[in-house]
């Protein structure tokens, strides 16, 4: 996980930011700030997966300048807040590994379908690899999107009958309608 | 063979070398082992075997404790075996042996050097002359009894003094009253300044006419009068201290001022509960943490939160003990103030290994 270039908000250097505030009004502001910071950080670093157990190695949750870090339990509760708006989802039952959706799955889905429609790929089949790593999509936002997230986004489209996933062992592809 | 262990060839305490042989081979029972052509040393405690020269270098060698040997027997010229409970070993002396190994070992096993406990060396220092001849449990018991007796005596003496003080105190207060009334009568003879001074002495001495339970028929009346007294006495102090005093502090100060006829904590608590209903300028307040304080009627949580918030802002951040030393109040009170301030959203906390600190609530005030 390399350094992520980000303009830290003022809260990041404010020690109380790393303690969950008991005052409900204050806490709401604090959690809101954390939510947007987490999404911003992941967007900048193109992070799709966060492991809470490794949080002390992630500068986002560990500000070594002021020697403060966010507790794992607090991180999980903030990520759970993000989950409510569809911006995160736990991968394992213990809620250690989280997928972060700085675009919600719906947003990813419409982005991909928009790209397909603009290129006239309707009624054609693309492999998942082409869709996420291919040369044609290099300029698209969803370039390098991990397959797990991609599949989840495509499943959203599938529900709307806009595509059909072909998930055999060999070739993983998708046909758009 | 498994009775051998690896050990240092250095002699342990009180161990002496008895015999040395060269070119000895070890047998595990009847089976030859790779331990051949070594040096064998028999000591009072152990039998050591090592490769030639290893013992001289102090390297690790094989050692068999003599205490494990139950029986020794010469087998054929140049070889004999040690029988142990489960097994036996054989030593083969390729070059024969010069010393009377069998005799030495047998003698060694009879003497059982390893069991001899050498008495610990007595230091040469001349022994201090023993004063107390009593030893053992009786001696300890007696010395304890003596100690207790001495303690009892000091306690008794101390309480006699206290009793004297208490009986004198009543007279003292009476005398003080007489003097103050005389001063009132003779106004003009002494200057205003001196009167004030004298009165302040009296005040610091204590409450001149304490409310006591005997004087009242019902508890209720007693508590009411007590509440009046507490309010009258503490109002000035509490005002000086920034409007708040813990109940424990109040308890100490009241009883310090009374000097005798001391109040119980229950009585003070009951009296303080009446403060507000009697329309006195003090009231009893309980923080959410359970800490009880006496505070001025004019003071409410909102103003406390406000003023504490401003203090935090002025200082950048504050911990409870910093605030306590700034305001001259106890740490408990300072903590309560900070928590109140936090409840009102005037500050926010930073709970780290460095302790609990409070910062201005930038979350609410620093809107982008």
Strand-helix topology:
The complex is a heterodimer of chains A (177) and B (368).
Chain A: H1 24-45, E1 49-51, E2 62-63, E3 68-69, H2 72-84, E4 88-90, E5 97-100, H3 105-119, E6 125-127, H4 128-133, H5 147-159, E7 163-167, E8 172-176
Antiparallel strand pairs in A: 1-5, 2-3, 4-5, 6-8, 7-8
Chain B: E1 5-7, E2 17-28, E3 31-32, E4 38-43, E5 46-50, H1 54-57, E6 61-65, E7 71-76, E8 79-83, E9 88-93, H2 101-111, H3 136-185, H4 192-205, H5 219-240, E10 244-246, H6 247-258, H7 265-274, E11 282-286, E12 292-296, H8 301-315, E13 318-319, H9 320-327, H10 331-343, E14 347-352, E15 355-360, H11 362-365
Antiparallel strand pairs in B: 1-6, 2-3, 2-4, 2-9, 4-5, 5-6, 7-8, 8-9, 10-12, 11-12, 13-15, 14-15
Helix pairs in contact in B: 5-7, 8-10, 9-10
GO molecular function, one term (chain A): protein homodimerization activity
Pfam family, one (chain A): ESCRT-II
GO biological process, one term (chain A): macroautophagy
Describe what this molecule looks like in 3D:
The complex is a heterodimer of chains A (177) and B (368). By secondary structure, chain A is α+β, with helices and mostly antiparallel strands. Chain A folds into two domains: 10-100, Orthogonal Bundle (Arc Repressor Mutant, subunit A), CATH 1.10.10.570; 105-176, Winged helix-like DNA-binding domain superfamily/Winged helix DNA-binding domain (Arc Repressor Mutant, subunit A), CATH 1.10.10. Chain A contains five helices and eight strands; from the N terminus they run αβββαββαβααββ. Chain A has helices at residues 24-45, 72-84, 105-119, 128-133, 147-159; strands at 49-51, 62-63, 68-69, 88-90, 97-100, 125-127, 163-167, 172-176. A three-stranded antiparallel sheet of chain A has the order 1-5-4. In chain A, strands 6-8-7 form a three-stranded antiparallel sheet. In chain A, strand 4 and strand 5 (97-100) form a beta hairpin. The longest helix of chain A is centred in the N-terminal third of the chain and has 22 residues, at 24-45. The model of chain A has no long low-confidence stretch (mean pLDDT 87). Chain B is of the alpha+beta class and 368 residues long. Chain B folds into four domains: 5-114, PH-domain like (Roll); 169-205; 213-296, Orthogonal Bundle (Arc Repressor Mutant, subunit A), CATH 1.10.10.10; 301-365, Orthogonal Bundle (Arc Repressor Mutant, subunit A). Chain B is built from eleven helices and 15 strands. Chain B has helices at residues 54-57, 101-111, 136-185, 192-205, 219-240, 247-258, 265-274, 301-315, 320-327, 331-343, 362-365, and strands at 5-7, 17-28, 31-32, 38-43, 46-50, 61-65, 71-76, 79-83, 88-93, 244-246, 282-286, 292-296, 318-319, 347-352, 355-360. Chain B is elongated, with a radius of gyration of 44 Å. Chain B starts with a strand and ends with a helix. Chain B: Belongs to the VPS36 family. Chain B: Keywords: Cytoplasm, Endosome, Protein transport, Transport. Chain B: Component of the endosomal sorting complex required for transport II (ESCRT-II).
């Amino acid at each position: 996980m390399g350094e992520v270039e980000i303009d830290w908000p003022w809260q990041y250097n404010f020690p109380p930011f790393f303690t969950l505030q008991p005052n409900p009004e204050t806490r709401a502001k604090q959690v809101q700030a954390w939510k947007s910071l987490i999404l911003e950080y992941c967007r900048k670093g193109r992070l799709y997966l966060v492991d809470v157990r490794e949080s002390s190695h992630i500068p986002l949750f560990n500000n070594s300048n002021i020697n403060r870090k966010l507790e794992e339990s607090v991180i999980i509760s903030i990520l759970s807040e993000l989950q409510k708006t569809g911006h995160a989802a736990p991968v394992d039952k213990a809620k250690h590994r989280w997928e972060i959706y700085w675009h919600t799955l719906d947003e990813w889905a419409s982005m991909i379908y928009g790209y397909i429609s603009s290129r006239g790929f309707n009624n054609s089949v693309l492999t998942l690899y082409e869709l996420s790593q291919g040369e044609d999509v290099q300029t698209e936002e969803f370039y390098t999107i991990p397959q797990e997230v991609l599949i989840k986004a495509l499943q959203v489209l599938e529900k709307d009958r806009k595509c059909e996933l072909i998930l055999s062992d060999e070739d993983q592809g998708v046909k758009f309608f | 063979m498994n009775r051998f262990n690896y050990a240092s060839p250095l002699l342990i305490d009180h161990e002496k070398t008895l015999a040395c042989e060269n070119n000895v081979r070890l047998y595990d029972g009847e089976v030859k082992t790779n331990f051949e052509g070594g040096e064998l040393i028999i000591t009072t405690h152990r039998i050591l075997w090592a490769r030639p020269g290893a013992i001289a270098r102090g390297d690790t060698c094989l050692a068999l404790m003599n205490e494990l040997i139950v029986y020794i027997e010469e087998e054929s010229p140049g070889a004999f075996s040690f029988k142990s409970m489960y097994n036996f070993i054989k030593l083969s002396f390729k070059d024969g042996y010069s010393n009377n190994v069998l005799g030495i070992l047998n003698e060694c096993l009879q003497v059982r050097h390893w069991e001899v406990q050498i008495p610990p060396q007595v230091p040469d220092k001349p022994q201090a002359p023993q004063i107390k001849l009593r030893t053992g449990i009786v001696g300890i018991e007696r010395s304890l009894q003596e100690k207790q007796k001495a303690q009892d005596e000091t306690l008794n003496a101390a309480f006699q003094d206290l009793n004297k003080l208490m009986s004198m105190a009543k007279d003292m207060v009476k005398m003080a009253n007489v003097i103050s009334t005389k001063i009132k009568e003779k106004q003009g003879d002494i200057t205003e300044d001196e009167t004030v001074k004298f009165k302040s002495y009296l005040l610091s001495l204590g409450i001149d006419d304490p409310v006591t339970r005997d004087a009242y028929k019902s508890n209720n009346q007693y508590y009411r009068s007590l509440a009046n007294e507490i309010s009258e006495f503490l109002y000035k102090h509490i005002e000086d201290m920034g409007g708040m005093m813990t109940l424990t502090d109040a308890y100490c100060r009241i009883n310090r001022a009374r000097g005798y006829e001391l109040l119980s904590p229950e009585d003070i608590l009951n009296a303080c509960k009446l403060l507000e209903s009697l329309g006195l300028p003090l009231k009893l307040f309980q923080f959410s943490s359970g800490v009880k304080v006496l505070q001025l009627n004019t003071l409410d949580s909102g103003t406390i939160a406000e003023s504490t918030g401003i203090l935090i802002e002025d200082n950048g951040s504050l911990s409870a003990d910093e605030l306590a030393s700034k305001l001259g109040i106890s740490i408990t009170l300072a903590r309560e103030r900070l928590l109140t301030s936090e409840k009102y959203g005037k500050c926010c906390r930073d709970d780290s290994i460095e302790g609990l600190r409070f910062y201005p609530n930038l979350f609410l005030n620093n809107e982008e």
